[in-house]
Amino acid sequence: MNQASPADQLRKILLVDDDPIGRKLLGVCLAEAGYQVSVASSAHEALDAVRREVPDVLVSDVILGDLDGFALCRSIREDPGLQSLPLVLVSAHFHEAEDRRLARAVGASALAERTPDCQAELAAIEEALGGKKVPGSRVNPAEVPRLYAERLAGQMAHLLGKAHDAEARYRALFENAKDAISVTTPEGIVIEANDAWERILQRPREGIVGHHIRDFCPPEQAEANLETYRRNATHTDGAATVPLLRSDGEIRQVQISTTAVETGGQTMMLNIGRDVTDSLESGRKLEASELKYRTLIESIPDIVWTARSDGTLSFVSNNVERICGVGVAEALETSLGFWLGRVHPEDLAAVRAGLRKLREGTDPVDIESRWQRPDGKWVSLLARARASVRDGKRVVDGLVSDVTERRTLEEQMRQAQKMEAIGQLTGGVAHDFNNILAAILINAQLLAADLGEQDPRREEAAEIEIATERAITLTRQLLAFSRRQILAPAKLSLPGVVDGLEKMLRRLIGEDIDFSVIHAAEPATVLADPGQVEQVILNLAVNARDAMPQGGKLTIETSNVDLDEEYALGHLPVVPGPYVMLAVSDTGCGMDEETKKHIFEPFFTTKEKGRGTGLGLSTCYGIVKQSQGYIWVYSEPGLGTTFRIYFPRVDGAGEAASPKRPIGELQGRETVLVIEDEEPVRIAVQRVLERFGYRVLVSADAEQAASIVRSHGQAIDVILSDVVVPGSNGPSLVRELTGSPSRAKVVFMSGYTDHAVLRNGALQKGTNFIQKPFAPHALVAKIREALDSPGEAGASQ
Predict the structure, then answer these.
(1) Which of 153, 161, 504, 546 is deepest in the core (most CB within 10 A)?
(2) Torsion angles phi and psi, residue 70, rounded to 5
(3) For the chain, what is the mean pLDDT?
(4) Element (DSSP H or E) covering residue 490
């Protein structure tokens, strides 16, 4: 059946027919085609109706009870206000050429023959609504009455001659209708039913006619169906969908329209039904599919969206409020300019380029940008979109993912990798530099000792020593940052360390800064080098002081915390577990994001020239990392800064510092084997030891050292070995040497921590170690300590 075009969806038709059955059948067809139908049962009723409200088209049967259709057309055309109203006549009998000629003469737009499927009537209506002009009549207006009388008389004679065919025509229309048509009594007895009812109920005609409608109802639905029937019977035109029982037991859903009609002085019910089981099932499936789709859409953490060609949204999922801070209703009302106006200026060009690709092609496009929510918060968004054409219109479908956390983690990883790379570089430089400084420091101090008190060169030697000490401090800071300095970890109470520094800190930061300390009540014990932890606290306090030149507040806090999986996921590379937190907060000038990215890099400083080396915070970073801890900074411009450090928590209380064993005279006569590949260092060490009375044997590599041990054997009292030895390494070489007959003690020396004598940069218990560069007295004291310590030879390895 033809359908009305989209433009005709609300077109109004006035249907004029005095036959209730014919009026009902054609009205159903017109309604299904998308027209809004009103009815009139006579020509005079139709004239009154069109004068009250002009329809889009009038459709009339030719044979009416008062005026016929031709006369109705003439009456309408005589009204100046109805000259342009499309008029369509329909008839089962008036359809010959002379009839069409007469129809044109009286002003009808078309004359259509009645058909069972209403196709001819619909075609004529669409033609009339399309504005197609009716061919002009060649009939003299004066001849119209004559022609009208002749055609009407001829058709009446024709109808009378074929009256016996009327029942056949009605029966053909009745039987050939696609819809199920039946006539019932008001009580529900079936009088007539067509073939369509037989197909729906799967029953022969005799199994339908004469039966009550309850016979076709499921038992549990019989009363409800009868109530629906009675209700529809009392209305002019009622409709409902009811379940009917087929002969095979299957239940079908049938939509039935019921109209009360008067025929032969009796009231009958005209029922027109249609099996809608399949369409209802399709509708249910569609609803289930839509529900599944909606559930899927809402379960996706991303924003699902569809946009029109102008950039406005036609659909957006609820996640837009969580991610963008914009409600669904508001998002659907906003223009493309709203979204572009909140894109970070640095990302706007890339976003516009992506939009151009979507306008010009159909390939998938990824667009990432930073976007500012209405609450001021910035989020990183990744939009994946693709353009397509649907119903002749270009649309864009896409997803928007919140990648803020992912980008933050990636930035943290990049920062950690950068810091690791800088650490490797600075650690290597510091290691090589330490060997040079060792030789300079030893020789400078030896030179100063040889010069008399009044010797002017003594002051120059002192300057060399001072410069060397400054260089040593610098290299130690670099080693701290690169996590390659030597640590002597011990169990210590972090609150106790802070309390021990409190007096010094108050003098350090000055009276214009309000200083407070907050400790948790429970023990807070960590495994760390006390001196290095003190260095961290002092560096952070100095940094806070410098950020508050006009005064402010400094707070140091310690507490036990448990970092969970969620925290660890957002703070790579944190390992979940128990920690002791050290927080240092100030109310100073704060830092922006760019400054925070570089704050732990060596030599980076925001202070004016001459007020800092840029190594204070990098030293803190290295000490914390080497102590298996983590350090984070939280700061905003004008809102101060907080450094939070997390040291792994250990059980037990902090250990008291063990007193150093008294060392006797530094002079000695023992034999020392020095294994050092750097000649300047080897020579300087030999001079120091010999000056203090020791007999010194020197070796530059493993092979030479082995040869000396074989030659001197038990005469060697102590082995002083660099950790890195050509042809071997210090610990392995010493194990070989002391494995042979030897009573020698062992002292290691190095300016680097990447070796086996150290575990993660910490001294193994019982190891005698001295870090380069060292002063002459420090070297001799360490040798004397090893010689005077109890234990078997080689035990100190």
Answers:
(1) 546
(2) -65, -45
(3) 80
(4) strand 490-493
| Per-residue tokens: 709 | 């041990």
Structure confidence at residue 160 as a pLDDT band (50, 70, 90) = very low
Distance CA 755, CA 723 (A): 7
Nearest to 104 by CA among 81, 120, 128: 128
Hey, CA dihedral for 736, 737, 742, 744, is it positive or negative? negative
Nearest alpha-carbon partner for 554 in 562, 566, 564, 545: 545
Nearest Cα to 14, choosing from 66, 69, 93, 80?
69
Structure tokens at 84: 């342009």
Q: What are the helix and strand counts (H, E) for the chain?
A: 25, 31
Handedness of CA 775, 777, 778, 779 (dihedral sign): positive
- What region does 439 belong to: left with phi over 0, alpha with psi -120 to 50, or beta? alpha
Question: Alpha carbon of 248 to those of 189, 193, 201, 210, 778: distances in Å?
Answer: 22, 19, 9, 20, 109
As given in the structure block, the two tokens for residue 98 are: 């002379």
- Counting beta carbons within 10 angstroms of the beta carbon of residue 531, is it exposed (0 to 12), middle (13 to 18) or buried (19 or more)? exposed
* Distances from the Cα of 89 to the Cα of 19, 130, 255, angstroms: 15, 16, 30
> According to the model, what pLDDT value does residue 424 have?
63
pLDDT per position as a tens digit, 423-478: 666 666 666 677 777 778 888 877 877 777 778 787 787 788 778 777 776 666 55
Residue with tokens 């003299």: 140
This prediction's pTM? 0.41
Q: What is the pLDDT of residue 136?
A: 42
Q: Phi first, then psi: what are they for 652, rounded to 5°?
A: 95, 175
More confident residue, 370 or 764: 370
pLDDT tens digits, 772-793: 778 788 888 889 888 887 765 5
What pLDDT is recorded for position 201? 92
Tokens read off for 78: 């005589």
d(CA 442, CA 691): 12
